Amino acid sequence: MRGNLAKAFQLANTQVFRHATAPKSLTDQLGRKLFLAILTVQGLGAFALITLGVILKKSGGAPGVIRPRVRQEISRAGVALLPMFLFAALALGFLVVGQTVSALAKVGATNYLGSTMVIVIVREIGPLLTAMLVLARVGTANVIELGTARALGEVEALEALGIDPVHYLIVPRVVGMAAGIFALTIYLILGALGSGYLFAFLQDVPLTPGDYFKQITEALNWLDFALLALKTLAFGFFIAIVTCYHGLAQPLRLEDVSRVAVRAVTQGVIVCVFVDTVFIVLYLLT
Amino acid sequence: MSETFQPVVLEMSAASIGALRDTSHVVVADVNWSVAAGEFWVVAGQQQSGKSDLLMHAAGLMTPLQGSCRVFGCETRDFGEAQIAERLRVGFVFAGGKLFNQLTVAENISLPLRYQSHHNLPEISSRTVALLEWLELTPFADSTPASLAANWRQRVALARALALQPELLLLDQPLGGLGTRHRQWLLQFLDQLWRGHELSGGRPMTIVATTDDLRAWPHPQRKFAVLDRKTFSVLGAWDDVKSAPHHAVKELLAEPVETTI
């Protein structure tokens, strides 16, 4: 329990470097940045593995406490964001899909509509935009909540009660965010494709709804569904890991919380882009 | 309490106590301390003397930088999932309570019971109600801790620590910030717990409390220790405290002392 958190954070004790005097030469500064980045990646990796271990080892443990917390996190990272995602889907449909459909129709390239939509919306923009919005709305809140809890000594209070802080604080957030991003991505894609056609229809594009959706479904294959599910779950897992790690890792003072929140969001974006790149390679290989 | 042999519940040998905020910094060095079952210890020290850190070590929440700390015969360095039963024999009341503000008072108290899944719902409910009643918290059951005064938050923290019926109760500055009436109530309640209270099944409880004001704790059967200048010294009984030559003890008794500023 105590060991779970301590192990990950001892691996990445970057405070020594952050509080040390700034090096004078450019190469020393670059070296320090690189060393800090390696330590952070090491700490995040250890934290991710520990969290996975707790999820596997304690699945079904303390159901009276953990299940309501998981439901609460799914609601926070999923259900509560539905209105915002309805707006985002409409915006994405009007701004991207509608214009693409219209442009393709003008050059007589509506045959490419299905594959274009699948690549742009289903594979890329849908999952990535969902991840960014959830990172901004829920990830930031995670860092602040956990950072404050850490600063107020709630983690020690949990340990004193025999409650594993990773199990109680992290696991529900990881599960909630993974499930939330998966579900919201589906809604965003469906909403964007629907509203996009509506926009094209209003511009008198000569394309029937039947043809439009037929082209999209024909361009989709089973791999798209499988990789979309894996990608969104990976986004949720890693965003939760990065934000929870920074919330719990270093700050013991309240004044550190806002600075750490900014760092966590930046790293969250980097991790999402990295995960996305891995999936692009997977698409290309298959 | 009787003078018969009692098993040791907490033992520190040549333990170096690190600070919570910087674990490499030693706040108390070379602690040799043994607490037997059924004893009531009061550890006194000025602010920043390492009282909280010492208790965190005693609860197994931190491990000594050097030396050993054993709780119910189990080395705290080895505390993990397998030693959870030993961990749960220790109750800890933090200074200021450290309650979970997103939960209500009743939820705070029942949280450890709900997490330890071997308790069923009727058991949890009746235990929570009993704790609320004994600690006079029933009117605040559905309030959040942030809406309560410090006096009542301290009682909620005590109730939460008692939920799992610990055998060793550690209290960090339990009288800090309390009004006179609440101080008296808490001292009497701790005395009842030490002698054997219905909440602990009538079994006498071992208690260790820290303080920065010794005047509130006189009792012929309590044992006293002091933390001063990174040193832990056992003083003995209350009579020994009054005659102790330590400068720090006189300050903690609020006796006039020569000060140099």
Structure description:
In chain A, helix 6 runs antiparallel to helix 8. Chain A has one domain. The mean pLDDT of chain A is about 85. Chain A is globular, with a radius of gyration of 22 Å. Chain A has helices at about 1-10, 15-20, 25-55, 65-75, 80-105, 115-150, 155-160, 165-200, 210-220, 220-250, 255-285. In chain A, about 85% of the residues lie in helices and about 0% in strands. Chain A is built from eleven helices and no strands. By secondary structure, chain A is an all-alpha fold. Chain A starts with a helix and ends with a helix. Chain B is α/β, with parallel strands linked by helices and about 260 residues long. Chain B has helices at about 50-60, 85, 105-115, 120-135, 150-160, 180-195, 240, 245-250, and strands spanning about 10-20, 25-35, 40-45, 65-70, 75, 90-95, 170, 205-210, 225-230, 230-235. In chain B, strands 6-7-8-3-9-10 form a six-stranded mixed beta sheet, sandwiched between helices. Chain B has a four-stranded antiparallel beta sheet with strand order 2-1-4-5, with helices on one face. In chain B, strand 7, helix 6 and strand 8 form a beta-alpha-beta unit. Chain B is globular and about 50 Å long. At the A-B interface, helix 4 and helix 7 of A face strand 6 and helix 3 of B.
List the helices and strands and how they pair.
The complex is a heterodimer of chains A (286) and B (261).
Chain A lengths: L1 H10 L3 H5 L6 H32 L5 H15 L4 H25 L6 H39 L2 H7 L4 H38 L6 H11 L2 H27 L8 H29 L1
Helix pairs in contact in A: 1-3, 3-8, 3-10, 4-8, 5-6, 5-8, 6-8, 6-9, 6-10, 6-11, 8-10, 10-11
Chain B lengths: L7 E11 L7 E11 L3 E6 L5 H8 L7 E6 L2 E2 L8 H4 L2 E4 L11 H11 L5 H14 L15 H13 L5 E4 L8 H16 L10 E6 L11 E6 L2 E6 L1 H5 L4 H6 L9
Parallel strand pairs in B: 3-8, 3-9, 6-7, 7-8
Antiparallel strand pairs in B: 1-2, 1-4, 4-5, 9-10
